[in-house]
């Protein structure tokens, strides 16, 4: 089964569900668990003259502090689940950062949340989870709004954890 689970989180309430599911799965499988938060590069966050109003150093400091806070919460949750958890903070576009971390750390399962958007909302807002599933060779498990056949194993795991 899975030996090293990567849990991707942005600190949102929805991502907390994936963190919980990933930690439960890690405990159940006695798998190594690594949590990652991806900080988007400064260049993707500014448009026009906004860069002059909000300096890159302030953005990087604020983003790093936020990532540290998010990952500390994951470590606390892992302790409550009784399992060790490593953390990683990566600067990249989220899908690429998640996949890069999974590959560089030898993870064989990625657990992350998805809004499960459909139709126009999906076209306009996109989906980080869809992009990870599309680009990755690592197995993907997305909680709770799974709509992809590739995530069926995650759905069954989710059902199993609720029993």
Concise structural overview:
With 163 residues, the chain is α/β, with parallel strands linked by helices.
Topology summary:
Blueprint: E1 4-8, H1 13-29, E2 32-39, H2 42-45, H3 50-53, H4 56-81, E3 86-91, H5 94-104, E4 109-114, H6 119-125, H7 128-135, E5 139-144, H8 152-162
Parallel strand pairs: 1-2, 1-4, 2-3, 4-5
Task: For the largest sheet, list the strands in their spatial order.
Answer: 3-2-1-4-5
How far from one another are the termini? 20 Å
How would you spell out the order of helices and strands? EHEHHHEHEHHEH
Tell me the count of domains.
1
Shape: globular
SS summary, helix count: 8
Structural class: alpha/beta
Strand segment tally: 5
Main β-sheet description: 5 strands, parallel
Share of helical residues: 40-55%
The named CATH superfamily: HUPs
Q: What is the CA-based Rg, rounded? A: 16 Å
> According to CATH, what is the topology?
Rossmann fold
The CATH C-level class name: Alpha Beta
Low-confidence stretches: 121-125, 143-163
